[in-house]
Specification:
8 helices; 3 strands; WH_DNA-bd_sf; 3-stranded antiparallel beta sheet; MarR family winged helix-turn-helix transcriptional regulator; 8% strand; WH-like_DNA-bd_sf; HTH_MarR-typ
């Protein structure tokens, strides 16, 4: 066992990042195996627009849980790839509305059967003694109630 694994909860972020990077790396290889030109980092936006059709930039950021600047960066990349279309809201000129472009819609149709396979495999991985998805949900709920920083500051002030 390595030092990071032995450090327990202190290295939680590092271990989650490591797991995430492995899944992203393998995810990219899965899409490549099926002949699909797709970056896993695009998934949250593409999947959200597949289900919600048209959203503002702020709505997408809220849906995927990314910061506004990170969302903008991702949207610019997807627009360059011609996966999404951006247009101004008719009622509010400052607001941009985003929807899937024909190329994005076509991509989703290719990906649907792959998503079924990926879902089965990830369920198998996540469904373990402590059920990973349930644990993630619980951790996210706790952080929503009181952030990591708030908890640290509270403990600091108690000492």
């Amino acid at each position: 066992m390595n030092v990071i694994n032995e450090s327990g909860s202190l290295a939680l972020s590092t271990r989650l990042q490591r797991l995430s990077e492995q899944l992203r790396k393998d995810g990219a290889l899965v899409y490549k195996e099926f002949g699909i030109d797709f970056e896993p980092k695009w998934f949250p936006v593409i999947f959200t627009l597949h289900h919600k059709n048209i959203l503002s930039v702020v709505e997408i950021a809220n849906e995927i849980g990314y910061t506004h600047p990170s969302t903008i960066s991702l949207l610019k990349e997807l627009e360059r790839q011609q996966m999404i279309i951006s247009k101004k809201d008719k009622t509010d000129e400052r607001k941009r509305l985003i929807e899937l472009a024909p190329k994005g819609i076509e991509l989703i149709e290719k990906m649907k059967p792959v998503w079924k396979i990926i879902s089965r495999v990830l369920e198998e991985i996540a469904h373990n003694e402590n059920h990973l998805l349930k644990a993630i949900n619980e951790a996210e709920e706790k952080i929503a109630e009181q952030s990591f920083l708030q908890r640290v500051l509270q403990l600091k002030n108690q000492q």
